[in-house]
Amino acid sequence: xxxxxxxxxxxxxxxxxxxxxxxxxxxxxxxxxxxxxxxxxxxxxxxxxxxxxxxxxxxxxxxxxxxxxxxxxxxxxxxxxxxxxxxxxxxxxxxxxxxxxxxxxxxxxxxxxxxxxxxxxxxxxxxxxxxxxxxxxxxxxxxxxxxxxxxxxxxxxxxxxxxxxxxxxxxxxxxxxxxxxxxxxxxxxxxxxxxxxxxxxxxxxxxxxxxxxxxxxxxxxxxxxxxxxxxxxxxxxxxxxxxxxxxxxxxxxxxxxxxxxxxxxxxxxxxxxxxxxxxxxxxxxxxxxxxxxxxxxxxxxxxxxxxxxxxxxxxxxxxxxxxxxxxxxxxxxxxxxxxxxxxxxxxxxxxxxxxxxxxxxxxxxxxxxxxxxxxxxxxxxxxxxxxxxxxxxxxxxxxxxxxxxxxxxxxxxxxxxxxxxxxxxxxxxxxxxxxxxxxxxxxxxxxxxxxxxxxxxxxxxxxxxxxxxxxxxxxxxxxxxxxxxxxxxxxxxxxxxxxxxxxxxxxxxxxxxxxxxxxxxxxxxxxxxxxxxxxxxxxxxxxxxxxxxxxxxxxxxxxxxxxxxxxxxxxxxxxxxxxxxxxxxxxxxxxxxxxxxxxxxxxxxxxxxxxxxxxxxxxxxxxxxxxxxxxxxxxxxxxxxxxxxxxxxxxxxxxxxxxxxxxxxxxxxxxxxxxxxxxxxxxxxxxxxxxxxxxxxxxxxxxxxxxxxxxxxxxxxxxxxxxxxxxxxxx
Amino acid sequence: xxxxxxxxxxxxxxxxxxxxxxxxxxxxxxxxxxxxxxxxxxxxxxxxxxxxxxxxxxxxxxxxxxxxxxxxxxxxxxxxxxxxxxxxxxxxxxxxxxxxxxxxxxxxxxxxxxxxxxxxxxxxxxxxxxxxxxxxxxxxxxxxxxxxxxxxxxxxxxxxxxxxxxxxxxxxxxxxxxxxxxxxxxxxxxxxxxxxxxxxxxx
Amino acid sequence: xxxxxxxxxxxxxxxxxxxxxxxxxxxxxxxxxxxxxxxxxxxxxxxxxxxxxxxxxxxxxxxxxxxxxxxxxxxxxxxxxxxxxxxxxxxxxxxxxxxxxxxxxxxxxxxxxxxxxxxxxxxxxxxxxxxxxxxxxxxxxxxxxxxxxxxxxxxxxxxxxxxxxxxxxxxxxxxxxxxxxxxxxxxxxxxxxxxxxxxxxxxxxxxxxxxxxxxxxxxxxxxxxxxxxxxxxxxxxxxxxxxxxxxxxxxxxxxxxxxxxxxxxxxxxxxxxxxxxxxxxxxxxxxxxxxxxxxxxxxxxxxxxxxxxxxxxxxxxxxxxxxxx
Lengths: 731, 203, 325
Known about the structure:
The complex is a heterotrimer.
Chain A: H1 13-18, E1 33-39, E2 45-51, H2 53-56, E3 61-65, E4 92-93, E5 99-105, H3 108-116, E6 119-124, E7 153-155, H4 158-163, E8 167-175, E9 187-193, E10 196-201, H5 206-217, E11 224-227, H6 243-255, E12 259-262, H7 268-271, E13 278-286, E14 292-303, H8 317-321, E15 328-336, H9 350-368, H10 372-378, E16 383-384, E17 389-390, H11 396-407, E18 419-421, E19 424-436, E20 442-449, E21 454-457, H12 467-479, E22 486-489, H13 506-532, E23 543-545, E24 548-551, E25 554-557, H14 558-564, E26 569-576, H15 581-584, E27 588-599, E28 606-616, H16 623-642, E29 674-678, H17 702-714
Parallel strand pairs in A: 1-12, 10-11, 14-15, 21-22, 28-29
Antiparallel strand pairs in A: 1-5, 2-4, 2-6, 3-5, 7-15, 8-13, 9-10, 9-12, 13-14, 16-17, 18-19, 19-27, 20-21, 20-26, 23-24, 24-25, 27-28
Helix pairs in contact in A: 9-17, 12-13, 16-17
Chain B: E1 4-7, H1 24-28, E2 49-55, E3 58-64, H2 70-77, E4 96-99, E5 102-105, E6 118-120, H3 133-140, H4 150-163, H5 169-175, H6 186-202
Parallel strand pairs in B: 1-3, 2-6
Antiparallel strand pairs in B: 2-3, 4-5, 4-6
Chain C: E1 5-7, H1 12-19, E2 24-27, H2 33-38, E3 46-49, E4 58-61, E5 64-68, H3 73-78, H4 80-85, H5 87-94, H6 99-104, H7 107-112, H8 163-169, E6 173-177, E7 183-187, H9 188-191, E8 210-217, H10 220-223, E9 225-230, E10 241-250, E11 253-262, E12 269-270, H11 272-278, H12 285-292, H13 308-324
Parallel strand pairs in C: 1-3, 2-3
Antiparallel strand pairs in C: 4-5, 5-8, 6-7, 6-8, 9-10, 10-11, 11-12
Helix pairs in contact in C: 5-8, 11-12, 12-13
């Protein structure tokens, strides 16, 4: 019975299609009140006072929290996911739309109306809103990748190699501020019971949320109970514990009643991070033989004021490892502006970084008059040139070959502006994608009852990727039971600890823990069977199938094994983490992206007409949900390529399009037929399940593939995202 | 099915909608003394109105403010949280419901204007536990990931089939473009609608 | 959103009488007004619900179409006689918003929808349209989506309607009913105002006055027409640039030509310069191109939207060629 790998329906699907799945903002508690945020209208300066009388007089208003009466919160105390400011602890305004007060009222309408009636007086400062204007003040990140690696690296002598190379490219690529915009806005319901706190909260990491609340309110983490059974998308913005969540708990504490704070769509643009603007300066060179001789990638990413924290967009990490080149230098720098704190957004670093890297590769290929795939193959890295280690596996050649075949790459005429379909210019572009295979320590508990009903529990969360389903498959496969016998419980911080759902590592981290717990349960049942009948039988001689241990001469129902012993269930909790393989291997997933665009040269309209992508995602545990992740990542990448940009007013630093009518994300009509598939790669070197992580991989390289296709269609090289029709329109 | 009468008005004491009925003094006890923040003790009663809504074939008596959207009434007062709030501005479609058989965005609909109109939400699509063919097709085609936009997508899809816009994938894509799916399940959504429409036609 | 009361009038006169009071607004489909109220851009204390008045019929006769103010966008767009006699109206409506919003939005409300300018819709910005005299940060700011025609130094906000562009091209009229019970007619071309020194005054409606119907004349040109809309996203987006073109050709000569544009003007923009260049001319591609190049006379682009002028000309040319074919 093969369950892992099959294209099975999600086990939580029925709840989602019937409206039965409950998200954080949909829980209530007796006596619950509603909170609404008041936001600043200046981009920098000091608050000098509040005028609250009008708001206080409005019906249903219970409390208005300002920095003048807010609870003083604790310090950092090792809670890494916490965003510590602004939390109404002082009167400083760091960015426009910073929350400066919270109104608590008996209904949502009343809270929102009163929040709009709070008047704030300021001593305004001069906001710094354009990173371009202060690029010379860029600084070195202090906590790059949380200190796990250096922001700069170099090997060889890229400058000398560049100056003497036959073919040179020096270009600047930029990407704008982008907002995650998951469909579910962040929401928190906080309820205190004495010093114990329960929060229903939209989060990609319930464990981190638990430590954040504990640290800021000075209570023990075990006194914080975080619940998040379903998450309406996150894409990174629900990875940290952002101030509004903390403010909900503060409000609940101050009014002595449960408080829900659901932020509005407009507030999503400044309350929970965004992908920062990047400016990337690339200097690449190659010899006439098509071999890269020099790669230099200097990345600048925009930041908030340092008082709010630190986040660097690691744009150049893929440049270190993707191609064989002896002379490579990368740097990462930050530029402070009066903006809210940026954060991880789907494929942080790789998405904007590969746009630059893979655009530059396309430009160089054109200069060399080489086919873009051929150019990449000539520079194929057989081992990780940065870590100088073998890859755990790398099936990128197969991705190029199978992707090109499925796409019909051979039909591409290499000359730009050479392919037409009626009035449309047709362009074909490709790009490589890569994303590291991450893994963090995780625990899980598995319990099988006498009737075979199995419960899998972990303090993880399903952000939509299919964690419920894949963990059920892992348990069913290992315990030899039908999928329908397995129930999975996630999203509860009382369950065994699991990492944040980010970095595409949930399956690679949690899967091995569930696997280990199931193997332990299996071992216990085997031991019971040995004690009862098959003394000395090896593990190989025994099997679990449909609720029975199957041995050399028959089967013993597990109910029977348990009944003897007066047991209701057999349970195990297991912890799993990386072993020496992390030192031995460089671990990455790979892919090849192929876009065909159609451009109307007079109207400027650019549409992706066809899309093919082939990926090495390691072992695939559910072919159906995995394909959905591929398609979803590609759609996200199409948005990045053609649509998405958060516009900030230069004078005030205020976002002008804080809504999803004018912050454009793809709609159904933007998305062409997509053929996305995996190349075979069934290895176990990366982790016991062999899964490389596929949440972010499929969006890496999409923007470059589209940009390269637009160049092929029009002859216009776009180095600034999103691609705008004004850049290609001809009059 | 004859509409049955279900009175929610009396049940609201422990939920958000009922708090307006609490005496001011009861609220005041919860408030810490503070120089800048205190409960409004001069608040005048807002115009609240009693209405009866016909939701999924059931009559529901509610007391609401005129400004309250149908979406908020469904989620906060009727306990029907299947209808989702994604943008509250009609730009995402997550709140799509049927009003007298037509798909609308409930966030831009005033509940008070819905008296005597038939409201169908995602909870009303399932009859005696049997999924609507569109719901089943969404599961089979994995036409969602996080599931938050899904009720709106399904309500739109059911309407789309009824409107007769299943002629081609391009037509379905255009007529589903009022529903944003940030997980990007669009191709699967179109496949699911095509599949469901075919099955419904075959009866 | 601030609290309000809602009246459900039992007749036209009771509606207009009520609505003349300060702080009172009509609500039709509500698709724009609700957004503006949620953003605190509009804060009426009293709403007059137009739904009880009916006013949703679509009348067709030999002279034209009479679209009552509360007729829904989706119903008008799908009406067979509209598709046959005024396809540009159906096309413009179907290019607007989303299916759900079109099921709610009305004829009258569509003409009265307000600009999408992000500065106008956010009370955290100054805005002359919302708060007269407070200034316009949009002109030196994020102006890519804003108007190149009809602006002033107070305001360059774009009128967002597609439908109104078709009406301007077809020279439709609106029927108005006022608080005194009298009615009048106004050409759609004269219905919207340029911002000038008072961008807060967007139409020539009097206080309490209500749109009761839109009358679109029938003509051979109206049957030979098209709406072309260009936008960044493939659907569910307001126009970057759009054009409505209607044409009658008699014996190879252009005997009637109507051209209007959207996305470029502070009001739905009539293009008489293009019409003048084509009227009475032989229908050939050179003439179409020469005429299209006349479009947008007097354009004053801002820092980010200069592309709209060449794009306008290309869009007009494409639309002309489409109806000529």
